[in-house]
Write a structure and sequence with these properties.
Strand order of the largest sheet: 4-3-5-2-1-6-10-11-9
Shape: globular
Structural class: alpha/beta
CATH architecture: 3-Layer(aba) Sandwich
Number of strands: 11
CATH class: Alpha Beta
CATH superfamily: Acetylglutamate kinase-like
CATH topology: Carbamate kinase
Helix content: 25-40%
Order of helices and strands: EHEHHEEHEHEEEEHHEHE
């Protein structure tokens, strides 16, 4: 079965790579994510990734302890690069050609981010992992995901989380929580729903880039979504 999407951007949180650990990287989880990505590559979909760094370090947490915010954010960007390299290794062990591109230059380790080169990698069927966020402090990896998705002309931004969509309250605390099938960007912003931060959401809204929030830990869900099945919560211009 073919996919309605030619190119997607998948946003993974750093915590997703930690598995059941409180921090760090979990080899079994990395292998699982690689297998899920393999399943959508088999559908001839071009895949770009942005990964967070919260399993190693969050700049905003450092700022709460008195650390300079910019310094903390740069440390968080380096954490995303560690995660990107770990994910690259997991993918390449499954014979998936992968390139890591960083918004902060470190040529001995990864490629610098160059939009046209990234697009060419995708056209050749390689997975491209965008590391180091936007390369600027005060911007989240959610915003980096929205920015890179539009730069490489992805047709959808898929945010992979630990829950199967967006709810009006925390479903782990409230069994009566209502799940949304679709939302508008304005709903997300006005209700302060935890989809993506407001900068990322506004960027997607201004450029009409759909966002889908789904549970990455549900085996096979990513492939079903990419095949066109209604999975998770979709954020669009109007509902």
């Amino acid at each position: 079965m073919s996919s309605p999407y030619k190119r997607i951007l998948l946003k993974l949180s750093g915590e997703a790579l930690a598995g059941k650990r409180e921090f760090g990287l979990d080899a079994e989880t990395l292998d699982y994510i690689a297998s899920e990505i393999r399943s959508i590559l088999d559908l001839k979909v071009e895949v770009a990734l942005v990964v967070g760094g919260g399993n190693i370090f969050r700049g905003i947490q450092g700022a709460k302890t008195g650390m300079d915010r910019s310094t903390g954010d740069y440390m968080g960007m380096l954490a995303t690069t560690i995660n990107a390299l770990a994910l690259q290794d997991a993918l390449e062990r499954r014979e998936i050609y992968t390139r890591v591109q960083s918004a902060i230059r470190m040529e001995q380790v990864v490629e610098p981010y160059i939009r046209r080169r990234a697009t060419r990698h995708l056209e050749k069927g390689r997975v491209v992992i965008f590391a180091s966020g936007t390369g600027n402090p005060y911007f989240s990896t959610d915003t980096a995901a929205a920015l890179r998705a539009m730069e490489v002309e992805a047709e959808v931004l898929i945010k992979a989380t630990k829950v199967d969509g967006v709810y009006d309250s925390d479903p782990r605390k409230n069994p009566q929580a209502k799940k949304y099938d679709t939302l508008s960007y304005i709903d997300v912003l006005s209700q302060r729903l935890e989809v993506m931060d407001s900068t990322a959401t506004s960027l997607c809204m201004d450029n009409k880039l759909p966002i889908i929030v789904m549970n990455m830990h549900e085996k096979g869900a990513l492939a079903r979504l990419v095949k066109g099945e209604r999975i998770g919560t979709k954020v669009v211009a109007s509902t």
